Task: structure prediction
Amino acid sequence: MSLIEIGRVEGLHPMVSVDPAGEGLLLYDRTSEATPPLISHITWSDRLHGEAGRSGLRMVDDIAAAVHNAEVVHISFSGACSAMEAIAGRLSNALPGRVKVLKTVYPGRDFTLLDILPPDASKGHGVAKLAELHSIEPHEVMAIGDNYNDLDMLEYAGTPVLMGNADQSLLERGEFYTTLSNNEGGVAAAIERFILKNKETLSGK
Result:
């Protein structure tokens, strides 16, 4: 059973990214029109690009058929935390060693996003690649995150910073710095301390 079919059996709504060698395309079907990640993506795209940004979005009647011969680089599902936790392992085990499942969890909203990616794809991998291209060492990198899908990026960076609204289990990891929440200018506080060197604006590790 394919990853998309597993999600459908569980009543989840897929979004699929294809065409990595071209301009990129996000496919979704009618069942996912009202899902928060898609709404958020459309809002972001409209803000940056206006209606022209919609060219990277396409609604299809049958998403499994639409991606049959396409090069898929990313699949995502979203839903309530308990339901998504239950299916995360099943998705990982469907193609062992061939995919990575990353979770973004917001308990206060009872919302979890599952990103299914190639095994070597992650924020950490992307940051490391960019650093290599620009001859930047890991100890020169600051990374800021608030969720589980940020972990490998934080673990790579010489200066890893957690937002104050991150999950408590992440905040308890002593190797990370902690800044203010996303409603309190946490990113700005981290930049002031580590980029502008105003060390009184951020708590220590």
